[in-house]
Amino acid sequence: MTVAERDARAGRISLPKVSAHRTTSWIAFGSLLLRDLTVLRKNAIEFVVRTIMQPLLFVFVFTYVFPKIGQAVGGRGGEQNFSTLLVPGVVAIACIFQGIQAVALPLVQDFGYSREIEDRVMAPLPVSGVAVEKVIAGAIQGLAAAAIVFPLAAVVPTTPVPLNVRPVELAAVLVLSALLGASLGLAIGTRVNPRQVPLLFGVVVIPITFLGATYYPWAELSPIAWLKWLVLVNPLVYMSEGFRIALTPQYPHMPTWAVFVALVGFTAALGVWGIRGFRSRVLS
Amino acid sequence: MGRMEPIRAETRTDDAVIVTEALTKVYPTGVRAVDALDLRVREGEIFGLLGPNGAGKTTTVGMLTTRVIPTSGRALLAGVDVVAHPSRAKRLIGVVSQTNTLDRSLTVRENLYFHGRYFGLGVRQSRVVADRLLEVFRLADRANADVGTLSGGMAQRLMVARSIVHRPRILFLDEPTSGLDPQSRIAMWEILQEIHADGQTVFLTTHYMEEADRLCERVAIMDHGRILALDTPDSLKRTGGGDIVLRMVADGDRDRLAQAMRDLPGITDARVLDGAVHLTASGGEGLLPRALAHAEAAGFAVRDLSVDVPTLETVFINLTGKELRE
């Protein structure tokens, strides 16, 4: 008979002494992150499948099927051009989709009905710390998604994809894009209720991806001036252009400074808005 | 002064581990959920907040557990102001809320393990405590199961187990047995008694008077955001419930019957409830035949008369004129 069993029979619940009172917010933060990464590891297959499907099909149809069946695509530059243009856009989409899938949708579910996040909110750290942790965990998933999708976009096309990787810019754009995607997820996830999820895809996710300078460089929108300026409200534009700067600088792209200012600005604004939303959903 | 406040409060609260001072919550809708609440709960005490749904119990627990921001007044847990220092306050408490808040992405054991980690337990320590609690709460054979597969009673046991992983100074339970079948409810009472026997301060809310009566050392009866009475269950029943309770059913106008019965010496209160007249009496030899004779003399044909010992329900009825469960 173990000590616990003996205690249980004796009607006592005695536990080893613990030092919980000495804990800090940072330990709680790290443990929340550990929890999220454990869940990610457990759902690794699901994560890979949901991350790969959309970009894989996109790259497959546009850069493999179309050239094979002789369907014209890619505008002035021809098909090799298009395959190359597509790589930055597809990586950017993978990043922003993680924000929706890894942060927004679970939060909608949590706040809408499951209340699972309750225990994490009661962890000994400020409520805003729990929100920031969500963003960091989401950003890590965004980075993982980009790492999975990148080779896909570079390998599947029938034509070679000439990339001109600039490592420093790539690292910076990757980190900022992952944080931006997760911050967007936090902002959306704290403000959408479960019934609005289909609407979310229709009015937010689809327009963002189609008008995000993903399938064409932003500079080439010049013939449609109004659209060129309108899409500047779309954070994905800066992510795509950022990856263009980092991967295919030989093509036209936005000025580097503008891209970084916008990435940092959107991340900060969406992050603050998201944390406020989180606090208002958790506290009353 | 801001800096000195917690220290001063700590000396002032002596043995009280929960102190509220004029704690008030008015929701933006204008609902005054909790109205100038003054409470003191002693260390090691098992304290119950009894009242009907909507009385303000959950809002009270919400404020004490940092989740509801008070409109005015203040709340101290072991001297820590919950509004000024929510993270510090959260370190002191364990919370079991009304709904199932288990982490469905984790297994039964992981729910306990990660909770321990959130509160600063090391890898080994958290594992040891988790396994120990799984045995004590008879969940060891489900350790690796998804929490979604647990029955209601098991899920509730796991929530309670999780709430004490980090050995909180104060354990809050909001309606811990609501929605449980009678057997699971009794099992939960036994668990809570064991936890309390181990020296744990427990603050629970309930709308089951039997639960408050059986578990709590002191009970506060709450309605419309205010405490109507606060004492040990026995004292409450003695002072607020009379010595015995008579339930009288008769033909005719019940309000008039209640009116008539109030004149009988020994009857402290008479009111109409549920189609019967409830009489509260302070003892008295031969009360039953006297009550019967009095009613008949007043022109009522009594069809049924039963005697009951006062319960917290009686106390509540006497305080509010309505029943606990409606």
Number of helices of chain A: 11
Average pLDDT rating of chain B: 86
CATH architecture of the largest domain in chain B: 3-Layer(aba) Sandwich
Intertermini distance of chain B: 48 Å
Domain tally of chain A: 1
SSE series of chain A? HHHHHHHHHHH
Q: In which range does the helix fraction of chain A lie?
A: over 70%
The CATH topology label of the largest domain in chain B is Rossmann fold
Instruction: Tell me the strand percentage band of chain A.
Output: under 5%
CATH class of the largest domain in chain B: Alpha Beta
Give the biggest sheet of chain A.
none
What does this protein look like?
The complex is a heterodimer of chains A (284) and B (326). Chain A is mainly alpha-helical and 284 residues long. Chain A has one domain. Chain A has helices at 3-9, 25-42, 44-69, 78-114, 118-121, 127-155, 167-189, 197-210, 225-230, 235-247, 256-282. In chain A, helix 3 runs parallel beside helix 6 (127-155) and helix 6 (127-155) crosses helix 11 (256-282). The longest helix of chain A is centred in the middle third of the chain and has 37 residues, at 78-114. Chain A is globular, with a radius of gyration of 22 Å. By secondary structure, chain B is an alpha/beta fold. Chain B folds into two domains: 5-102 and 150-236, P-loop containing nucleotide triphosphate hydrolases (Rossmann fold), CATH 3.40.50; 243-309, 2-Layer Sandwich (Alpha-Beta Plaits). Chain B contains twelve helices and 14 strands. Chain B has helices spanning 5-12, 57-64, 86-92, 108-118, 123-136, 152-163, 182-197, 209-215, 233-241, 254-261, 287-297, 312-320; strands spanning 16-26, 32-42, 46-50, 72-77, 80-81, 93-96, 170-174, 201-206, 218-223, 226-231, 244-250, 267-273, 276-281, 302-308. In chain B, the strands form three sheets. A six-stranded mixed β-sheet of chain B has the order 6-7-8-3-9-10, sandwiched between helices. In chain B, helix 7 (182-197) links the parallel strand 7 and strand 8 (201-206). The termini of chain B are far apart. The model of chain B is unreliable at 1-13 (pLDDT under 50). The interface between A and B is large, with 47 and 54 residues.
